[in-house]
Design brief:
about 290 residues, 10 helices, 13 strands, binds NADP nicotinamide-adenine-dinucleotide phosphate
Length: about 290
């Protein structure tokens, strides 16, 4: 099978590249950015003709869309670009997949939920995004579902990896430099090591489980606040910064973030027969790689 990965130089895309390395399928890694020493084909997913052309020329069977507009705060002032990347572009990928009978694996977010209920969110819960990022990601999900292509959507949360900018790398840096730090404890969720999500996606492809169409929730196991997560990052990094828990209103933001956005993973575990690692175990692996 020929697998096209978009946004391949981002966090998830890079882990897809690492984990698919031994696969007997043929992966084509694309992005609008290039990285030194990394083989990447240029593909802008907002360009329908370019998407169609590469899918034809490379005889693509599966598209894995790791590209997105992921800056939640910036999206509030950049609706047009967030809409283009998170809503219209998945629609383009899905339409091209439908035209050629290909399958689309698309990634979405816990930000489609309001996050006001202290219970793990299930796939069939009502959605109610708080800001532009969540709203455009939700519209992207809907465009995929309405396209007529074969699709799977994996909603994930709190993604981190050794690559790019993320909470783990920021906290590791800050707790090495500062004697004290405040981190919010009134937002609770579960971190997701991008390698764990990439492993699931590669397993779905390798085992040809693309027939199980639907939305699936995936994060690592367990529950924590950003404060707990920051303390674990500090400890595993061997730093000694004194981290104080604080409320979200001490860090004013244009976007109201979900207070409780733990994803219920029952469906993904039962459907694909996977065991999901606890977030602390995966965090340790990531920090060992940094
Ligand atoms: N990060 C999180 O905490 C989080 C949480 C929940 C869900 N998710 C979802 O998980 C998925 C993967 O996230 P991630 O953190 O791996 O994203 P990421 O690191 O921001 O990577 C996205 C990649 O897409 C590229 N891109 C931007 N515009 C493009 C275009 N027009 N055509 C092709 N590629 C383009 C980006 O390039 P530039 O760097 O140049 O923009 C970047 O390389 C996304 O769907 C995201 O919404 C992420």
């Amino acid at each position: 099978m020929n697998i096209l990965v978009t946004g391949a130089n981002g966090q998830l895309g890079t882990e897809m590249r690492n984990i698919s390395a031994g696969s007997s399928d043929r992966y084509i890694f694309t992005d609008v950015t290039s990285l030194p020493g990394v083989d990447t084909v240029y593909l802008d997913i907002t360009n329908r003709d370019a998407v169609r052309l590469i899918c034809q020329s490379e005889k693509v069977d599966v598209i894995v869309n790791c590209a997105a507009y992921t800056n939640v705060d910036k999206a509030e002032d950049d609706l047009a670009m967030a809409d283009l990347l998170n809503h219209q572009a998945p629609g383009i990928l899905a339409a091209v997949a439908a035209e050629r009978g290909a399958h689309l694996i698309h990634i979405s977010t816990d930000y489609v939920f309001q996050g006001d209920i202290a219970l793990p969110c299930r796939e069939n819960w009502p959605v109610q995004p708080n800001g532009v990022y969540g709203a455009t990601k939700l519209q992207g999900e809907q465009a995929v579902q309405e396209s007529g292509c074969s699709w799977q959507i994996f909603r994930t949360a709190w993604l981190y990896s050794p690559y790019g900018k993320n909470f783990v790398k920021t906290m590791r840096q800050l707790t090495s430099e500062r004697p004290t730090l405040k981190v919010v404890f009134d937002q609770v969720g579960t971190p997701t090591y991008a390698a764990d999500l990439a492993a699931l996606i590669c397993k779905v492809i390798t085992e040809r489980r693309m027939d199980r169409q639907g939305i699936f929730h995936f994060s690592d196991e367990g529950v924590c606040s950003w404060y707990d997560f920051a303390c674990a990052i500090r400890d595993l990094s061997g730093n000694t910064c004194d981290i104080k828990p604080c409320h979200s209103d001490e860090f004013p933001s244009k976007v109201r973030r979900p207070h409780f956005s733990v994803l219920d993973k029952t469906k993904v575990k039962e459907t694909f027969g996977i065991e999901v690692p606890h977030w602390y175990v995966s965090l340790k692996k990531c920090i060992e790689r940094l």
